[in-house]
């Protein structure tokens, strides 16, 4: 990948990126509003997303999942604390550099497919590359398109595709630029269970077969079961983590979350999981 303008190096106050780490947050805090309307959406969250790992973020509604994803992906700015993507400390970037980082190094899959209706599937997949003035790597593109099973539908427009197929286009679009990290916000929220399973399978294949790093916010223990690990948020703090999750184990832990008193929430210390 070539970028015309080098990204600003990390601040000397922030540790350099650790090898094998795709992105990390340190003491990440996000406060919305003030006075009576003040909400601490994230409270000193430290989390590491390792390269080639599929992480699911879970927790009760309003616990800060989307805020964490938005801050980690450079879509929202923290109130305090740091976010690094690779070696880049996001707070050192101006708006233009941040836009470039999102375009070149981060892939997104949202609940709404967000495809452009006038473009074909192929044009939608390559749009971020086209906007960046980059020529698609044909072999990479072929690999992605065949992985998500879209080879026969590349000249279809979104309205001619099912919801599941549209989300496959969105997954292929997210992977097309070989981003450092792909963020998914409830990527199967609009899909029936079969299409959802397919999309989750593709995300997992991208991790296993291509070494992609994927971070996904979900409410669904079955979806979380596709991940390599699940991190649990409660009231803006990281309270637990599970490796090699199964839907049943995730469900059991979720049931305990809101009622229980997680140790990290009691201690007053920053919540940190890596
Ligand atoms: N723009 C905003 N202005 C004010 N408060 C906000 C804003 N965005 C989020 N919040 C608040 O921050 C907290 C965390 O919200 P967030 O959307 O991150 O939670 P979530 O875990 O993703 O929720 P859900 O599972 O319901 O989508 C909530 O209390 C929410 O009301």
Can you tell me the CATH class of the domain at 51-63 and 92-258? Alpha Beta
Uncertain regions: pLDDT < 50 for 5+ in a row?
1-16, 259-267
The counted number of beta strands is: 11
Q: Return the CATH architecture of the domain at 51-63 and 92-258.
A: 3-Layer(aba) Sandwich
- CA-based shape: globular
CATH superfamily of the domain at 51-63 and 92-258: P-loop containing nucleotide triphosphate hydrolases
Keywords: ATP-binding, Nucleotide-binding, Transport
Domain ABC transporter: 23-260
Pfam families: ABC_tran (PF00005)
Protein name: ABC transporter ATP-binding protein
Question: How do the strands and helices of this protein lay out in sequence?
Answer:
Layout lengths: L20 E12 L6 E12 L3 E5 L6 H8 L7 E6 L2 E2 L5 H11 E5 L10 H11 L6 H10 L15 H14 L4 E5 L7 H18 L3 E4 L3 H4 L4 E6 L2 E7 L3 H13 L3 H5 L3 E3 L1
Parallel strand pairs: 2-11, 3-8, 3-9, 6-7, 7-8
Antiparallel strand pairs: 1-2, 1-4, 4-5, 9-10
The structure holds adenosine-5'-triphosphate.
The site of adenosine-5'-triphosphate (ATP) has 12 residues, from strand 2 and helix 1.
Quick recap:
This protein is of the alpha/beta class and 274 residues long.
Structural features, described:
By secondary structure, the protein is an alpha/beta fold. It has a domain at 51-63 and 92-258: 3-Layer(aba) Sandwich (Rossmann fold). The chain contains nine helices and eleven strands. The protein has helices at residues 65-72, 95-105, 121-131, 138-147, 163-176, 193-210, 221-224, 247-259, 263-267; strands at 21-32, 39-50, 54-58, 80-85, 88-89, 106-110, 181-185, 214-217, 229-234, 237-243, 271-273. The strands form two sheets. The chain has a six-stranded mixed β-sheet, with helices on both faces. Helix 6 links the parallel strand 7 and strand 8 (214-217). The chain is globular and about 50 Å long. The model is unreliable at 1-16 and 259-267 (pLDDT under 50). The structure holds adenosine-5'-triphosphate.
